[in-house]
Amino acid sequence: MPSMPPLDRVAKPLAGVLGRTLGVALSHPAVEPLVKPLTTPLHPADYLGLLDPLASSRTLRGVVTAVVPETADTTTIRFRPGRGWDDHLAGQWARVGVEVDGVRHWRSYSISSGAGQDPAITVHVEGLVSTALARDTRPGDVLHLDVPQGDFVLPEHPRPLLMLTAGSGLTPVMSMVRTLVARREDADVVLVHSSRSRDDAVFADELDDLAARHPGLRVVQWHTGERGRIDLTDTADLDDVCPDWRTRAAYACGPADLLEAAARLWQVESREQLTIERFAPVVLEGQGGEGGLVTFLRSDKEIEVDGSTTLLEAAEEAGVVMPSGCRMGICHTCLTPLRAGKVRDLRTGEVHGDEGQPIQTCVSAPAGPCHLEI
């Protein structure tokens, strides 16, 4: 007698089909008003989410379809998004919400899959949320999502490209490479990627395979354990690995010191555009303020903070659950009302603050005692 498959392998797909079918039916303009009185105060979509998390039109979610280890501390997570997801452009990022110890945390991750492919994020083990994602995620898990966004995208018209990346900075560029080689036989791309060693180089085997199959892609793996860091204080290293780099549109993503050095070099040596994607805000040196006692009013907690520590970091150290997303001043998810005091924007040095003013806590530090409404 043949063995029966596990119940969850049968129940989950059936629930998903049922949920999607009901979702289409209940969202019809003629049906929804008839059903809504039966579900008040909730919305019909809230009940559909119990059957299939992707059926809800109110909350954007995705179901993990595969978890692929890339290196010892880097993992790619592929997912199938639900209703409301916009197809991503190569190089864009999306906010992902993850439940850790019963608390939902939001972080921004570059999408590593090519445009037109099912979305995937590649996560490096670092910090609470990324570590939980990389270590604990399993197929079938549900991720909370926001739509793709970002301007780090391919040029509108085809042209020779130089991609300069280091560490996890390869992630959005990998989306670009996968998109270009799949769509354009005339693609002309030089990718220079810096990592400690071959074992630490994410996507190394795939890049070798793509370069072997596509003459227009040349990959330079720069291993700092053997060669030291790529030196951008002058042009010698770039002249060696890509002699025509000055004539190529360039993209750079990686640690702040690499990006700052690249920006200085391009300003002096090249008239071509350098497009940069940063994973951290640009903080001006010497912009730390006097700091002060930060009080979180609704949480009934307070903490003494120096002038270089962001309000978001201070809140997390004090055990206050704060909204956050990109953590670099772009997405504005962290906006929190200021009830008293002044704050300093660590990017510009500007001191500001009026009662009730929404503050970007991820890029602001206290400029004296201040109170936040959270």
- Spatial order of the strands forming the largest sheet: 4-3-6-1-2-5
Q: How much beta, percentage-wise?
A: 25-35%
Shape: globular
Beta strand count: 17
What would the average pLDDT be, to the nearest integer?
A: 85
Helix content: 25-40%
What are the secondary-structure elements, in order, as H or E?
A: HHHEEEEEHEEHEHEHHEHEEEHEEEE
Largest sheet, described in full?
A: 6 strands, antiparallel
Query: Which structural class is indicated by helix and strand composition?
Result: alpha/beta
* Spans where pLDDT lies below 50 across 5 or more residues: 1-18
User: What is the CA–CA distance across the termini?
Assistant: 61 Å
| Radius of gyration, CA atoms, in whole angstroms | 24 Å
Q: List the total number of helices.
A: 10
Q: How would you concisely characterize the structure shown here?
A:
By secondary structure, the chain is α/β, with parallel strands linked by helices. It is 27% helix and 29% strand.
Description:
Helices cover 27% and strands 29% of the residues. It has helices at residues 7-26, 32-39, 44-51, 127-136, 170-183, 204-213, 224-227, 236-241, 256-269, 311-318, and strands at 61-71, 74-81, 93-100, 103-110, 120-124, 142-145, 161-166, 189-195, 217-223, 249-253, 274-277, 292-296, 301-305, 335-345, 351-352, 358-360, 364-372. The strands form three sheets. Strands 4-3-6-1-2-5 form a six-stranded antiparallel sheet. Helix 1 runs antiparallel to helix 3 (44-51). The protein is globular.
